[in-house]
Amino acid sequence: MKVGGAGLAVVLLATACASGAPTEAVPPLAMKVRALHAQGQRLLERGERELATAAFEDARQLAESLDDRAGMAQALNGLGAVAALEGNAAEATELHQRALPLAEQVGRPDLLADTLAQLGTALQLSGRTDQAKSRYEQALSLVRQAADRDRESVLLNNMGLIQKRAGQVREAEASFQAALSINQALGNSRSQAANLVNLGLIAEEAGRLEEARRRYEAALALDKAVENRDSIAADLANLARIAEAQNHKDVALAYAKRAYWSYRALGETTRALAELNHALALSRSQGRQVDAKQLQNELDTLQDSGPSSLAAPP
Do residues 190 and 179 make contact, with C-beta atoms less than 8 angstroms apart? Predict the structure, then answer.
């Protein structure tokens, strides 16, 4: 999972499940906590945030009734991941901070690393980059000790974002590339796509437009293969912007339209309208009167009917 829209992509860890837990027999209710957590993760990966929240909340309540601290920490991390995806960085930070002492008490390095990493992500989304970096470094030490390449790739990607924000562009590019290499070796399509987007944005800012286009196209192909709907829309918007910068305005118009419809289907009102206005401007600049009229009618209809017309599908 990743957060970032048309900007840099922050990768969210899938929170620790039973794989990192002791191997002894698990009682039925404790097993149900894990099953609810796994269900929440699957729902979140499909973009069904409301249902994921319900599953994580059920897991949290059941874990609390059992004094299952690992289950409580996992559930809080799951709820924090939903909050982060919805742009509620303060709420995400609070949830992961509640999970941290529980993870420390349990003594599971995988759960502690996940909690530190997700807290780092929430802090990063809040703009508290120094604190985020500290948490990432703690988590990175743990995952490297465990030779956990999957989690290492997530942390390298997100450390790269902090480096880029600090103006350390070469270091950021190296971090994104290292994360991409790990994810290619592991076959992690979702995370590869996030790494490619971040590398594409660096290339775009450096004026390497053809490289950026290739990166964004590769990200789109991966996101479509795993049906990552939120990211598909952002990839299309990135490609529209690059095509326009390369003066391929007909291509840019086609991508902007596709981005608009994708965002509209997701109920992402602000981004949908931004892409619709982008497509309208491109059609007018090319003298494509039929397209411009259709897009203007679409814009007028949306503005008249309000945000309800952009409701996400069930």
Answer: no
